[in-house]
Automatic annotation (TrEMBL):
Matching InterPro entries: H1_KCTD8_12_16, SKP1/BTB/POZ_sf, T1-type_BTB
Protein name: BTB/POZ domain-containing protein KCTD12
Any Gene Ontology biological process: protein homooligomerization
Species whose genome carries this gene: Vanessa tameamea
Subcellular location field: Cell membrane; Cell projection, Neuron projection
Gene that this polypeptide is encoded by: LOC113402503
Main location per the UniProt record: membrane
Annotated KCTD8/12/16 H1 domain residues: 112-232
GO cellular component: neuron projection; plasma membrane
């Protein structure tokens, strides 16, 4: 005679409902889910489901860990710190360790801010009669603590206008990038855990008398300067 199927239980985690088995919840005997199952006084919702007042979306990874004994996260997952907090709450030491191992960001990384700015225009056709063809950036400037700037931009950073004289913990406003792709700079900042917190932009209002060789008047009229402030906490 075949064994009876395991008992199916329903959970309510922050308003998100899950279904699992008794054996899954008891897989880690010292965990909070196992303790809740054994405790008749643990909170339940109106339908008798075991209730946890926690993040209902992140609980899917907690439940996966209890089911499989391992952790598999989506490639774009960015909430390692929050998931680690959930693992600690549920008293799942193995999950805490797995989250730390899966976090691509180095531990104890330096906090700080980096400001990226650029002066640009738009390239026009002959005599400004054609449509705008592409954006033109003359140079991408980088300001901030030198160690942070080097950590983020590496070999793409040009330090020729502010060479290192051996000073510790110094700041700069004179670095710039060796390329002119602002989105590449943004990607590098994001990969290192920086988040955009502020930005501003303004027109430079260049006049005809200020024209440089090779710059037509229509292009000069569209000159602008933008800055973006990124912070890593």
């Amino acid at each position: 005679m075949a064994d009876a199927p395991p008992e199916v239980l329903e959970l309510n985690v922050g308003g998100v409902h899950y279904a699992t088995t008794r054996d899954t919840l008891l897989r880690e005997p010292d965990s909070l889910p196992a303790a809740a199952l054994r405790d008749p006084d643990h909170p339940r919702d109106a339908r008798g489901r075991i209730f946890f007042d926690r993040d209902g979306v992140l609980f899917r990874y907690v439940l996966d860990y209890l089911r499989d004994g391992g952790l598999v996260l989506p490639e774009c997952f960015r909430e390692h710190k929050r998931l680690s907090r959930e693992a600690k709450h549920y008293r799942l030491v193995g999950l805490e360790h797995a989250v730390r191992e899966a976090d691509p960001r180095p531990p104890n990384r330096e906090r700080g801010c980096i400001t990226v700015g650029y002066r640009g225009s738009f390239a026009f056709g002959r005599d400004g009669l054609a449509d705008v063809k592409f954006r033109k950036l003359s140079r991408i400037l980088v300001c901030g603590k030198v160690t942070l700037c080097r950590d983020v931009f590496g070999e793409t950073l040009n330090e020729s206008r502010d060479p290192d004289h051996g000073l510790a913990d110094r700041y700069t406003s004179r670095f710039f990038l060796k390329h002119s792709f602002i989105e590449q700079a943004f990607d590098m900042l994001q990969e290192q855990g920086f988040k955009l917190t502020a930005s501003c932009g303004s027109g430079t209002a260049g006049g005809a008398a200020e024209l440089k060789p090779g710059v037509d008047s229509e292009e000069n009229r569209w000159n602008h300067y933008n800055e973006f402030v990124f912070v890593r906490e």
